Amino acid sequence: NAGVTQTPKFRILKIGQSMTLQCTQDMNHNYMYWYRQDPGMGLKLIYYSVGAGITDKGEVPNGYNVSRSTTEDFPLRLELAAPSQTSVYFCASSYSMVGYEQYFGPGTRLTVT
Amino acid sequence: KQEVTQIPAALSVPEGENLVLNCSFTDSAIYNLQWFRQDPGKGLTSLLLIQSSQREQTSGRLNASLDKSSGRSTLYIAASQPGDSATYLCAVRPTGANSKLTFGKGITLSVRP
């Protein structure tokens, strides 16, 4: 049982490039989330999903897109990368939105130069 | 809007000391509160989840309490060890459909041998 896995661990992008951050969970959780963590700023929710085919915006969705075609996978797409998207990105999952713990992946450290 | 505050931002204690980490939140209408541990360069590991109807939860040397009316939670660590050195974050889940976790910025704990 691997939990929540993320790839890649590190990535450097040039301004204007695009990339997809991968997230997979093997706990059969319906709920999945993408956060970004900036130094001294805490975690901010980017997007979340309540099940396959259903996604919704979080607190800071601009510049990102998501899809959820399966229960296991929840990729995060960055289009036209900007320096403001330099951050550490965490994927998380939970059985339900209320009353259950969220489990986090190890993170992807992204630098945009 | 729910806000979560963790003060101080950093704490250094000698090994063996019992210590308390504080978390305060502005809106008492919450489903639950979760404490996480984050090691440098790693993801978040869930430590304890307290439901709104509970007063405390215990796991090993850790004890978390919740006082909704005053908007406070504490994480008590008994007999601290150098291996406890990490950043500790608390997060609250407000009431409401599809409500999301709101995180504090964390307390970075250093336990000196």
Written overview of the protein:
The complex is a heterodimer of chains A (113) and B (113). Chain A has 113 residues and is mainly β. Chain A has strands at residues 4-7, 10-13, 19-25, 31-38, 42-51, 54-57, 64-66, 76-78, 87-94, 103-104, 108-112. Helices cover 0% and strands 51% of the residues of chain A. In chain A, strands 2, 4, 5, 6, 9, 10 and 11 form a 7-stranded mixed sheet that branches. In chain A, strands 1-3-8-7 form a 4-stranded antiparallel sheet, with no helix packed on it. In chain A, a hairpin with an 8-residue loop joins strand 9 and strand 10. Chain B has strands at residues 4-5, 10-14, 19-25, 30-38, 44-51, 56-59, 62-67, 72-77, 86-94, 102-103, 107-112. In chain B, the strands form 2 sheets. In chain B, strands 2, 4, 5, 9, 10 and 11 form a 6-stranded mixed sheet that branches. The termini of chain B are far apart. Chains A and B meet through strand 5 and strand 10 of A and strand 4, strand 5 and strand 9 of B.
